[in-house]
Amino acid sequence: MKNKIKYIVISFSIATIFVGHSIYAQEISPIGKLAQNYIERLTEDLSKTGSLVPGAKQKPVVVNPQAVESDAITESIDTISKTVNELKDEKDKTINQIKDSVKVDIDATITNIRKEKADTPAHELQKVVDEERMVLFDKVSQGINDIKPTKTDDNSKKIEQLKTDIGLSLDKIKDNLEEESGLPANFEKSKRDVGQTLLKFQDVLNQKKEIIESRQGDLSFKDSDGDGISDYDEIYLYKTDPTKAKTKGDGRTDGEKIRDGVDPLSDNEHKIIYQDPREDKESFVSDSYTLDKVELVKEDKKLVFGGKALPNSYVTLYIYSTPIIVTVKTDDSGKWNYQLDKELEDGEHQIYVTSVDNSGKIVARSNPIIFTKSAEAAVIGIAGSVDSSLTTQNFLKDNFILITLGLLIMVVVLGMMFVGNHKTIKSALTELKNQVNSK
C-alpha cells in the first residue's frame, strides 16, 4: 500500500511539472503532451491495481522529466506496434469470414438449383459466378486493408461503402445464376452475415483506433512533408521538422539521410554512430519487434529477412557475427522485408530489430534472434531445430526406394495371409457342406 501511494504521489508530481511548464510556455510540446498522457494512464493504473501500466519500465524513485519523456516514447512505440499487429490480424480474420460466408451461400444456392434442375452441370453454374466472385473478393481484401486507424479517416463511411459494394456484387451473381438456370437465387443470408461481420470489425477498429490515437500513433500514418519519414518518427525519434522535407535545408531529404545512416540534424553529413545492442542494458525490449522469416535465395546465395516493427518507420537491423548494420522501412501494418546484398557465411548468427534515434541510441528493440544458415537453407533457430515438415519431406525424398520396397513387401505378406485365410475358409465351408449332405 505504501508503494502504491508513493508512486501515485510521484506520478502527480511529474504531471504537475508538465502542466506547470505548459502554463508557463502557453503551449506544451508534442513530447510533453505524450508524456502527460503517459503519466495520466500510469496514475490511473496505479490507483486501480498498484502496478505499472503494461509496457512501462520500472524506474527509480526520481522525478526526472527527461526519463519520463523517454519512458512515454518507448511505451508509445510498443503499444502502437502491438495494436497495429492486432488490427492486422483482425483485418485478416474479417476478410476470411466474409469470403467464407459468400462462398458457402453460393455453393448452397448452386446445390439447390441442381436439386430442382439436375440436368444443369455444376461446373457451368460455377463458371457464371467465378468472375464476379473474384471481383467481390478483391473488393473485400482491398476495402478492409485500406482502412487506417487515423483521426482523418471516416472509417464508418468506408465500411458502409464496402457493405454496399459487396451487396451489388452478390446481386450480379444472383442475376447470372438466374439467367443461366431459369430458377430463383437468393443471397440475403450472405448480406446479413457480411453486415454482422463488418459491424463487429468496426467495433474492434474503433477500440484499436482509440488506443493508437492515445499514443499519437495516428501520426505514424501521416507524412506531411513527403520525405519518407512518418510525422510520428520525425517528432519523437529524430526531432526533425515534419513540415520540411529537408530540416537542415541542404541537398538531401531527412528520409534519405536516415536510410543512409546520416544524422538528419547534422550540417556535414555526419554518420550515425550506432549503439551496440549487445551492450545495451537500458533500451526497451519489445516483442513487437520480430524476425518472422529467413530465406535463402539459392540462385545467388543471398538471404531474405522479414518481420514486424513500428508501422511506417525505419528500423535498423544488426546482424552478427560479421557485424552488418542496415536500415529498412516498414509498411502500414509494420511489416518489413530486406534482402542482404552480400553473402553471409554458413553457421549460426544473431539479428536485432531496433528503432534508433538520430544520435544512434537504441530506443526500442527485440531480443537477439538466432538464425542458422547452411549451403542449402536458412532457418530461424539454432542448428538442427528446423521445421519438422521439412525434415519429413527430406526423409521421404532421401529414402524413397527403401520406403517403396518396404511397402511392396508389406503388400506381398498381406496378400499371402489373405490367400492362406481364403483357403482355410473355403476348406471349412466344404467340410460343413459335406456334413449337412450326410444328414
Name a few traits of the molecule:
alpha+beta, 10 helices, 439 residues, globular, 7-stranded mixed β-sheet, 10 strands, 3-stranded antiparallel β-sheet, single chain
Shape: globular
Kindly report the average pLDDT value.
83
> Helicity, in percent?
40-55%
Kindly state the number of beta strands. 10
How large is the radius of gyration?
Answer: 32 Å
Low-pLDDT segments, ≥5 res: 19-25, 58-62, 385-398
Gap from first CA to last CA? 100 Å
Characterize the main sheet.
Answer: 7 strands, mixed
Give the helices and strands as they follow along the chain: HHHHHHHHEEEEEEEEEEHH
* Structural class category: alpha+beta
Summed up, the helix count is 10
Query: What is the percentage of strand-forming residues?
Result: 5-15%
